[in-house]
Amino acid sequence: MKWQGRRGSRNIEDRRGRTGGMSRGKAVSGVGGLGLIAIVVIGSLLGVDVTSLLNEVGMGSTDVRTSGSTQITAADKRAGEFVSVTLADTEEIWSEIFKAQVNKPYDPAILVLFKGVTQSPCGGASGATGPFYCPADQKAYLDTDFFTTMERQLGAGGDFAAAYVVAHEIAHHVQDELGILSQANRLRAQVSEEDSNAISVRIELQADCFSGIWARYAQERFGSLERGDIAEAMNAAKQIGDDTLQRNAGRVPSPHTFTHGTSEQRQRWFATGFETPDLAACDTFSAERL
Fold this sequence. Notes:
Elements: E1 12-14, E2 22-28, H1 33-46, H2 51-56, E3 59-65, H3 74-102, E4 110-114, E5 117-120, E6 123-126, E7 132-134, E8 139-143, H4 146-154, H5 159-177, H6 180-188, H7 193-222, H8 229-239, H9 242-248, H10 263-275
Parallel strand pairs: 1-4, 4-8
Antiparallel strand pairs: 2-3, 5-6, 7-8
Helix pairs in contact: 1-9, 3-5, 3-7, 5-7, 5-8, 6-7, 7-10, 8-10
């Protein structure tokens, strides 16, 4: 992916290395190896806090202080610059799409970069929660160490795979701007857990489709895609499918527990957005086949 030398976004809130106060958390005690990695990775990719799971396998309670500075490495700086440029790309692209297809201005999201632990109105953010979008403050939260998790533990490396993650979280903000996210979440609160999960899958697959639209516009507007980039995004979508994550954790896939969609679904909806860059093509809520 060609991204160096382009402007970065001003809508970055960089909390890395900043005093973060105190948050109630957990400290790992006697847990390690592949079991812990599997739990944390699944939690990260599904966007859920796995604190309770970690407690079941032997965690002790303690106060996690985030005060004091966190060292910012050269890799951290590069990741921050990359995210800033990618975010700026999403701002230009979605502003153009909203003008052409929605007939209203696009109000960009703030993207919070953190390292370790931070707080949001949607709850605590840590390496166990993974990247997520919080509609309460219209901010996306990202620990850039997650890119390392993708590459080393999931086999989903590459700049464009990382860009796909950013684009996906910003796609949730697009849903929020369109009024889709609030309606879907209100409905989720009124139904059973299984039905709520089914609605969540439609939310996430639409975000994947919107990410595909972004990728198509990024290529046409900036010429930023290189050979193999779409394959990187498709591989990332495959590796973070609910069925693949559950299999990799040694479990039999249970569709009623899926919250993001299967690998095949995530790949197909990303491809739909890329091939047909029209918001209407991403209507997962009316689709008979997901």
